[in-house]
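User: Okay, second chain of the day. Same drill as before: sequence in, structure tokens out.
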Amino acid sequence: MVRIAIFMALLNLCGWTEEFTDVGYQELSCYDTSRDREISFLVIYPCDFTLHSKKINDCYLAKGAKLDSNAIYPLVMYSHDHQGHYWESLWLGYALAQRGYIFTSVDHPGNTSYHRDILDNYFSYWNRPLDISFVLSHVLSGSLSQHINQFDISMTGFSLGGLTTLWLAGAFADFTLFKAILQKRIPKDLPPAIYSLFSQLRPKYLEKFYHDCRFRRYIALAPDFGQAFTQLGLFLIERPVLCITSQSDTITPPELNAQHYAADNPQIQSIVIPSSANHDAFITTPNEYTHQAMQTSTATMILQFLQDDRLLHNKHTS
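Assistant: Same drill. Structure tokens below.
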């Protein structure tokens, strides 16, 4: 079901109700031997009062700050966009951590702003959901696990990270449609090896079920590749999904992506914010007022979505 929300009405309905708290962060990594990938990730979390915070993109964070030994928080994971990085989501992680969430933002090797030399990852977008699932397993088996409510874990991502989110929710891509979209986007100045890898794409990579049932909710910010998913490919999504985009987004237009995802599955909501902000409004650091307003309203809607337990009782219908 598609729900087009009016920006100011949502702000009135979805208010922050919890107290602000101090925020800590850690930069960590783990190694997936099965795919020979070292995956870095950022963890942002509530912490006890500290005088050691430093300012990062208008957010105040304390590196390595300790969590309350008895505290347990819900977890939200994040996937960045094409050639992005885990710091791009700081605005969202900071907002959620201030209100009692642990936020984990994951880098995707070979597809970050500083690590583009792994050619076979330029089109290997299916590594993204595998990265998220691997990091989640690592986090849930490490020292942070004692602070995580393992029954309240959610997934979010921006652009290609939105696609990653839909994959993890249970979306099943159509290989022919996916490859056709990808072919139109190949820049003309890429190395020949890239084109060779594109020709080697096979259905076994794209027509695969990447669902991770450990997530309760999914939030896709300006999700991409909507036209690569048919009604049948979205049928298996059975848990709540929220797609948020701007009506002025020219990179991932809502009618071809967010609204397309939501058109035939009642578990998927689509909110199109009436804003002049374009696609990059979801990325730190806002350089225009419209970007800051977009991020503030988006964080508000996400918190409301995460806290609305009524959504978890919806039944999937065809």
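The first helix runs from residue 7 to 13.

User: Thanks, on to the next one.
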